[in-house]
Structure formats: C-alpha cells, structure tokens
Write a structure and sequence with these properties.
Blueprint lengths: L4 E3 L2 E5 L2 H4 L6 E6 L23 H4 L11 H8 L2 E7 L14 E5 L10 E6 L6 E4 L2 E2 L2 E2 L16 H9 L6 E4 L6 H8 L3 E6 L2 H12 L30 H10 L5
Parallel strand pairs: 2-11, 3-4, 3-10, 5-7, 10-11
Antiparallel strand pairs: 1-2, 4-6, 5-6, 8-9
Helix pairs in contact: 3-7, 4-5
C-alpha cells in the first residue's frame, strides 16, 4: 500500500478508509470529523447578521464529502486507537458507546442561522469541556490570520490543536476522514506523528499544499475572548476496550448508507 504523500512524521493515503485501516498500525488518538450524511451541499446556509452564505454548491461540486460512513467503519477505527475524538458525534450517537465527556465548540456565531456550536463524542471519562472560537462565515476569531475555507465542514487549526493537546501524551494521530488536512496541520505544528486518509483526491492535493506551505503557529489568541481549555489533559483510557461493545452496537444499528 503506497502513500499518496509522505514527509517526516506525516503520511496521507488516498482511498476509502475501510480499505486502508486494516493495514495501519494502532495509534494513540483518532481525531476526525466524519461526513454527517445530511445533504449539506443541497442546503442554503448563511444569512442573518450580515454573514455571507457558504458557496458549497460551486466550490465542492462533484465531490462525495457528505456521504455518511457505514456503522462498521466506526468499529474499525475505534478499535485501531487508544482514544478517540469524533466531531459531529451527535449524528452517530446510536453506534457509539455511552461516554460522559463530550467536547463543545462554541462558534460565537451571534445572530445568524449557523449552528451555535458543534459537538464531539470522546472516549474519555471526564467532564464536558468547551472551546470558544469564532468561526462564522467570513468572520473568524483571529481576523489578522484568517484561514482559507477549503472544505465545507472545515475546522479551525486552533480547535484541532486544542483537541490534541488535551490528549497528552498522544504522539500518534489518525484522521480517517482527513478532508483538507486540518488535523495533520495541527499535529505537525505540535510535533506529533499523524496519518490522514481521504477518499477525494482534490482534498488530498489541498492537504499536501497546506503541509508544504509550512506550519505557522496559528494559536495566537487561542484563549482570548473567552476561548477556554481545561487545566489538565483528559485521562487516557489506557487500552483498547471498545471491540466487544462496539461490535454489539454495530450489529444492532447497521443502518449506515
């Protein structure tokens, strides 16, 4: 199995993660944002408060980025890792174990019709945590260092850095739904090893470009204007305990498309 791209500590594979995951070594953390399967590319988003709408229909025409993963896909990559953070976990709660620690990203959207926040399911047994970082159409927390919007559901680099830092001592990161490569950029900035898998080649190309452009520290202002983080990292689960439980859940909820 040949990588699409490699540099020191970073590897990208182009393909379906279901085909690639069995060939990968276990990692410390899966940090990912799977497609939700809610036909977002057909929705009209934006408006309100003077915020310009996203142009998903034209920028991402012809891609398959919003196809919901099969439920057995979750079983595969959860069993490949010690710990997990899955953004959009509220869309997949029926096929994930019950856990007490969810992450909340307050997007500081104001009076718009964008979602006020996004939720991530985690494997941790600790308190719910919130990260506050503005990401509202054209408006971002740090307007002096705006990130270009390269994917319909792109996450800001400071958010993914926050996730990784909360999972110390995680040294190997896997994102099986890599998109434009934000998880890998954040991992590179923090000096961690990372593997990304992406089924759309155009996003592989975008991720490579971002990595090759260099990793500037975009964490300036990370905790300004209310951006918050816990004082201590999440406790590691210590082993891979999900196999039996996830297999049972998967058998009960094999409804993915």
């Amino acid at each position: 199995m040949n990588p699409y791209y490699e540099e020191e500590n970073i590897t990208i594979y182009h393909g379906d993660c279901r085909d690639i995951l069995p060939h990968l070594d276990p990692v410390d953390l899966v940090l990912t944002d799977p497609p939700y399967g809610i036909n977002l590319e057909k929705q009209s988003l934006g408006g309100g408060g003077g915020v310009a709408p996203h142009k998903h229909k034209t920028l991402h025409k012809g891609t398959t980025w919003d196809r919901r993963p099969h439920n057995d896909t979750f079983c595969s990559f959860l069993n490949k890792s010690r710990n997990q953070i899955i953004w959009g976990g509220n869309y997949f709660a029926s096929c994930l174990p019950d856990k007490m620690c969810w992450l909340v990203w307050d997007k500081v959207n104001g009076a718009t019709d964008f979602a006020d926040c996004e939720l991530a399911w985690t494997s941790f047994d600790s308190a719910v945590r919130m990260f506050r970082f503005r990401w509202s159409g054209m408006l971002q927390q740090n307007m002096g260092m705006k990130e270009p919007r390269l994917h319909p559901t792109q996450k800001p680099i400071p958010l993914m850095r926050w996730c990784i830092e909360r999972c110390d001592p995680a040294q190997t990161i896997l994102d099986p739904f890599m998109g434009s490569g934000t998880t890998l950029v954040a991992a590179k900035q923090l000096g961690r090893k990372a593997v990304g898998i992406e089924i759309e080649e155009r996003y592989c190309e975008i991720a490579v470009t971002r990595l090759q452009q260099g990793c500037f520290d975009l964490s300036t202002g990370l905790n300004q204007e209310g951006a918050s983080s816990p004082e201590k990292p999440f406790p590691s689960s210590g082993d891979m305990r999900h196999t039996t439980q996830l297999s049972l859940i998967d058998n009960e909820h094999r409804t993915g498309t």
